[in-house]
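Subject line: Sequence and fold of a protein, written as structure tokens
Enclosed: The protein record, placed directly beneath this head.
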Amino acid sequence: MNTSVVLAYTFLLVLFFAAGVAAVSPGTDELVMARQGDPGEAMLIVEKMATSISVRSEHFRLSLDQRYGGTISSFQLFDGSRWNELFDSPERGFPDLIFQNGEQEFRISLDSKATLSEPETTGRDIHVTVDAVPRSPDGEMLPWRVRLNYTICPEGAVFVDFVLTLPAGISGPSDLSVRFDVGDAVRQFPRFRDDNLAKQGNSFPSARVAFGADSDHSFTNEVEVFVEHKRPLSGQSDFRHDSRGHFLWRLSKGAASVEGPVEYANTLSLGVGAAVDGFLKSNVIGQRVFHWVNWLDLEHWYPTNEQIDKMAEAGATMLILHMEWMRQRGSNGKPHADYRDARDPEAMRRAIAYAHEKGLKVGLYMRGIEPYALDADFFEQYCTRDRDGLYVDWHGPAAISWHETMNTPEDALGDSHYTTDGSLAPAKAYFQFTRRLREIVGPQGFLIGHQGSFNSGVFANLCFDAYLPGETGSDRRMFSDIAEAGYKGMTGDSVCMPWTLDLPAYRNAEGAAKMAAWGFYPHLVMGLPSEHEEGLVFNLEADAPEYAFIRPYWRLLSSIDMEKAQVHNLPGVNRAALSTSNPSVQGVVYKAEDMALVIAANLGAVPVAATLELDTDFLGMAGEYRVRRINASTGAAQSTGVTERKILTSVLAPWGLEGFLLSPP
């Protein structure tokens, strides 16, 4: 297909895209499809060419090419301003399935005669089937046959269910590996990190990679790959991460060959973050959260109306009810929680109704290792779809593997496990579970995930609005610099909402300034003693002094309607919406219809003023805007004239904050 034809079909596709129908080209081997989802949902664009199939979304694009065994020969991720190729060469794409026969390698990517099916759709997903054989560089082929069943999802997930077959009476090599190698260009970026911090169960570890092309930003893209089943084709299996950006799962070692008939199946799961296009899709932007744990008064567990009044007066917009909302809240899967029985249903309904009356959204605690919870319809009983949400602890495939390694199912609650030994990391099934969560809370509801010690990477968060770090030791210095904050907060995918309870080094003016400048929205945890500071108890009253450090930031966030706002200039997006004359002064921009809020913070060691300049073209702003300076200490706004793009800050003290509200004159 030549360039002019591609452009013509792309233009036609835009028209069909708006109409939500499929467009088929006049040619016999060219197909263009668009899928219409719910409002605000991401969709995929597919093009079928003579030898390949391309799939595109707004934050990733890939190519399946029969000349390279039907593998993903190119995978590009958008970082806000540029596309970055993940692989070095088309022969080293995904999945990279390799048989070793003596000194010779046989790869499916070397099969130039693979066959690709026509792309099909289920809902918003694209399906393609590939048949290939492993070949050597000189074209010799093995008797193994390989079928790849792709499922490509607009959230950024790619699943490859593969089946290897060896005919009866035929002998074939059994030394099988899966490699995932990040290209040299990406590995040389100023921001690159590939260590997996997760507590491991009995499954394979995942490959976690984060990268960014600009040293002034954090990690703008995240990738995570799972080989789901640890079971070997023969002999034993293992995992290696011996060098930067290179990962190897051995699916057979210790046996030279096997005799057919043999069939071996496994699933590869790849996830890529989506917080990269400058228009972050999240329903928790700018939210101010009180997270109600209350281990101080289990007899009267729910917040009173007066306590909720204080939350609203403090500027809160969200109330999370932690696990004690259940009469039997379990103990991290041993025992499991019972979601059918609230601690006090009448008090719970009263607290949620009053929180709604005061303008607060409500989130309920659940665990990702307890999917049977959804059969209890607890969210539907107490919360409002497209308003409220879920806070999911023990979140992700790594948590499930660890849980199943250590614990057994509880049949009485409807609990079941994928394995008896935790040898499976059920990434594909977990993704489907998170889609079900999204359907329950609704497109405008919210999902906040907490992986804790199982923080393997971005994959679990693809359907979520926010990730919550901060509870584990590896997180406690997360605000030491912008890159550490980005990696621990997984800002290459979604909004970060840190759990400040366990961040004593940053539960102060420094922490508030960095969160304000980088667009983090903390959870203020209420109702338990501190583990890190003797004598400190996190009060049940929102006006308590231990929460005062966040008030200046919250006052600034309160000055614009965050329900209509989009956030720009986040460190996880490689597109600057705001530049500054002094690098110590950093900030973000919130745009809500024809108004904008600029928040600036001095992250340096000396007082300083700076000139801020907006990229008005990118922000969709034109002409003059009236400027009001917002005092973070009082919330008072003072007119400072008009501007087209430049703003002069006050002299800001170290960790000082200031806001500027821009509106049409």
Q: What stands out?
A: The mean pLDDT is 92. The longest strand covers residues 262-272. The longest helix spans residues 3-19. The radius of gyration is 26 Å.
